[in-house]
Amino acid sequence: MSRRQRPCLFAGIGTVAAVMLFAGCKGVPAKSERQSRADLKALTQVYRPGERKATLPTLDTNATLGAFLTYAMLNQPRVEAAYYDYAAAVERITVERSLPDPRLTLELDIQDVVTTVMPGLMTDLPWVKKLRIRADAASAESQAKYFAFETAVLQTAFEVKRPYYQLYFLNERLRVNRETLSLLGQLAQLARTQVEAGKATLQDVLRAEIEQDRLKTEIVNLDDSRNPMLAQFKAALGMKADQPTPPIPEQFNSTPLDLTSEQLFADALARNPRLKAMAAEVRLAETGIRLARTSKLPDFNLGFEADAKASPVMARPTLGVTLPVWRDKIAAELASAQALKGAAQARLSAEQIQLAVELADKSFSYREATRNLQLLTHSLLPKARQALEVARSGYSSGKVDFINLLDAERSLFDFQLAEVEARTRRELVLAEVSLLIVGVPPPGAPLLTRPSQSPPAAQPASGKQ
User: How many C-beta neighbours within 10 Å does residue 322 have?
Assistant: First the structure.
């Protein structure tokens, strides 16, 4: 090997070694990145252990409502999509805090022959604070994505409870209708007896039969309405169309929640995942202001080239610095970031106000349904049953006509249906407030007990509930 070839070989080996060195580099994780990755790891162990879907509960006739909720939260595709959105957001933290990739360069001077061969390596070096702030911004964004995942979990639980309660109370309505149909059969037989005794006309029998025919059709319609409810229940569980329809839990479970508690609104402010996501967006905007303030700081680029054909080898280091001279652009970036923070804070305040409105509305609905239920249970239904017995006795003795007897039967029927409707409404309100407003997760929910980077507590909206 000639002496002129050796520098070329050494320069080439040095360049390749430098590239290999950079290819094996790892950056230094920011504090927010370590915390976010710890959160993601903890969630993955619960929701996707071993990068596989968690074992789903068996859904049979003995399964509880809790088993169905767990099945849905682990199986629902919308929850899965929100999980992967969150995981992707955590991975972006590493991207944002990492240095740009170095560049391998090659410069040649060519006349009749190659006179200069200058391999080199170049890299950009942002101001060190910028990378840390970008990592913090990406971390805040990942927190917003986590609370979107939490919202999806709670929404899924509610979507399971809603058809569950509707199906349960559909069975109650069918029971009331069938009992009333049996009662109408008894009244029709009583009318026939009165006709045979010459105390009534055939018109009474026909009226009873008309009511029977109407009620039979309503029973068929109610029974048919079970199919779309079952489809909603199946979809809430995340089941595909070709999977068999699961059984409905036999044991009824109410939502345990005290809507009369004065602490409820404070709990909603502290736990509602929509508020937490918006608080994370405020943090993101605040980080954006910090990043905008670094626009006036220069960035650097470093490089090194070596003339492999020179003897001795000639080295050429280079240093570049950006000049942030456009003050109007820097001012605009800062103003834009401050405006984004103002918008995020306004959205958070608006959501707090809306949360207070929703809680007040649902609390009223709960109290109204409870009062109606107490009125029906303790007053109207007992009196309606007594009125029916009086009307039946009066009709048998010829003191009451059949129309009044039917009116008494219809009143009892209407009150029974009203009781079922009040119970259904109250349970749906309890489920909605517990899951979607207060944000109380059901047992077995695949959620973090307390994210390590929870956003600051939201400020209460002015005004009372």
Answer: 13
Name every residue whose Cβ is closer than 8 Å to that of residue 209 and which is 6 or more positions away in sequence: 188
* Structural contact between residues 219 and 174, judged by C-beta atoms closer than 8 angstroms: yes
Q: What digits encode the pLDDT tens for the residues 221-264?
A: 999 999 999 999 999 999 998 999 888 887 788 888 877 777 88
Task: Give the angle subtended at the CA of 99 by the CAs of 95 and 100, to the nearest 5°.
Answer: 90
**Rounded Cα gap, residues 389 and 119, in angstroms:** 105
pLDDT (tens digit per residue) in 117-133: 888 899 989 987 899 99
The helix-helix angle for 381-396 and 128-196 (nearest 10°) equals: 20
Both tokens of 280, joined, read 């994370």
Identity of residue 175: R
Contact 101, 86 (CB under 8 A): no
**For 403-416, what is each residue's pLDDT tens digit?**
999 999 999 999 99
Q: Where are the domains of the chain?
A: 28-49+65-311+323-437
Class in CATH terms, 28-49+65-311+323-437: mainly alpha
Checking if the pLDDT of 184 tops 80, the result is yes
Specify whether the CB–CB gap between 455 and 283 falls below 8 A.
yes
Round to whole Å and give the CA distance between 203 and 190. 13
Q: Provide long-range contacts, Cβ within 8 A and 24+ apart, for 183-187.
A: 183/409, 184/208, 184/211, 184/212, 184/215, 184/409, 185/212, 187/392, 187/405, 187/406, 187/409
Nearest Cα neighbor of 154 from 243, 34, 236, 32 is 236
pLDDT at 312: 81
Alpha-carbon gap, residue 259 to 268, rounded angstroms: 12
